[in-house]
Amino acid sequence: MSKAWRQRIHVLTSVFLVLLIGVFTMTPLYWIVNTSLKEPGTEFRIPLEYWPAKVSLQAYRDVLGPNFRIQDAIRNSVIVSSSVTVAALFFGSLAAYTIARLRFKYKIQSLMFMQVAGMMPAIITIAPTFVLIRSLGLLGKLPGLILPNIAYCIPVVSWLMAAYFAALPFELEDAGKMDGYTPFGVFWRVIMPLATPGLFSAGVIAFLGSWGEFMLALTIGMGVRTMQTVPVAILGFSRNFDLQWAWVSAGVVMSLAPIILLVVVFQRWVIRGLTAGAIKY
Prior knowledge:
- This protein is mainly α.
- It has helices at residues 3-36, 58-64, 70-101, 107-118, 122-135, 142-166, 171-178, 183-194, 196-211, 215-221, 230-240, 245-275.
- Helix content is 74%, strand content 0%.
- Residues 277-281 have low confidence and may be disordered.
- α7 (171-178) crosses α8 (183-194).
- It is globular.
- It has two domains: 3-60; 61-275, MetI-like (MetI-like fold, Orthogonal Bundle).
C-alpha cells in the first residue's frame, strides 16, 4: 500500500472516530434539550418523539417560577464556584510554585501525596467534613460549601500549575531578585503573569468541579432551599413532583448555559494551559 493511501486511511479513520465520539457525547445533551421543549407530562408518550410535535417553553417558565426558582440555585452555584476557583488558584499556585521552582528533598513525593489525597472518594471524607463544618457553625450556609470545595480543588490545581511552572526558565527568579522583589514578589509579579494560560485551564477545571459537586452540597445544605446549588435543586425537582422529566431537563439545560459560555469564552487559554509544560515535568 502506498504512503498516500495510508495517509488517506489514517485521515478517514480519525474523522470517523471523532464523529463517533461526538455523536456518543452529544446524544444525551440533545435528548435533554428535546425533553425540555416538550409540554410537561408528554415526555412519556409512546412512540418516542425525536423532536417535539409541538415545541413548548412551559417547562422553562415552570422552573423559573415561584415553585422552583432555578435562578436562585444558579446564583448560589456561581457564588460557590467563583469563590472556590479564586481561593484554589491562589493556594494551589503557591503549592505548585514551591514544588516546581524551589529545591528541597522529596518535592516530587510531596506532589504525589497531594494527588493521592485529592483522589480520595468523597464518600470517605463526607462524615469528617460534616463534623468539621458543624463545629464551625456553617451548616446550611454557603461558606460551609466553599471551604471544603477549596480543599478538594487544590490538588488538581497544584498538579496543573506545577507542570506549567516547571516549563518557565529559572532565570526569571534571578531577574526578579535583581529588581529587588521578595520571594513572594517574584511569585506574584513575575511568575503569575506568565502563568495566565495555566491559571485559566486550572481555574476552569476547579470551577466545573465545584459547580457539579453534589454529595457535599446535599449534606452540608441540610435541605435549606435558599442554600441549594444547581445539582441539589434539580434533585428537588424530581423528588417533589414525581419525576417530571421536562422540568428536570429544563433545569439541566439552564444550569449548563453558564458552563458552556465559560468554556466558549476561555477555550483558547484552556487549551494552551493544558498543553503548556506537558512534556517537561
